[in-house]
Amino acid sequence: MNEKKNTIFCDIDGTIFKYRKFGTYEETLPEVIQSTLDYLNVEKEKGSFIVLTTARPETMVGHTMKELIRSKVPFDRIIMGIGRGTRYLINDKDPDLEADRAISINLIRDKGF
Fold it and tell me: What pLDDT shows up at residue 2?
């Protein structure tokens, strides 16, 4: 039986990169939060599928990709232009298993793991 791989949804600003004011991304360099980068690298090595999420507008996709690649952030997909409000993860639960199939981790902005 194949082991099911995890999917990690991870915000970018304040989680992978230290928070910067929304309008300053193109004039400032990102500062990587090492503990989050380390976590993502471990998960990627385990075979997890990594989806990055951000409220950055779609017009910043090129700039954002350059920052992520330059900082060696592992990911499989990126979803841009999401709301800045509270994010909810909704998933089904297998009635035959005790374990939850959705977990939320809230990190203090800029502190990482």
Answer: 60
Could you tell me if residue 65 is left (phi over 0), alpha (psi between -120 and 50 degrees) or otherwise beta? alpha
CA 44/CA 10 separation, integer angstroms: 13
CATH fourth-level superfamily of 7-79? HAD superfamily/HAD-like (3.40.50.1000)
- pLDDT for 41-74, tens place per residue? 999 999 999 999 999 999 999 999 999 999 999 9
- Give one word for 72, left, alpha or beta, with left for phi > 0 and alpha for psi -120 to 50: left
* Amino acid (1-letter code) at residue 57: P
Threshold 0.85, pTM exceeds? yes
CB-based contact 93:100 (threshold 8 Å): yes
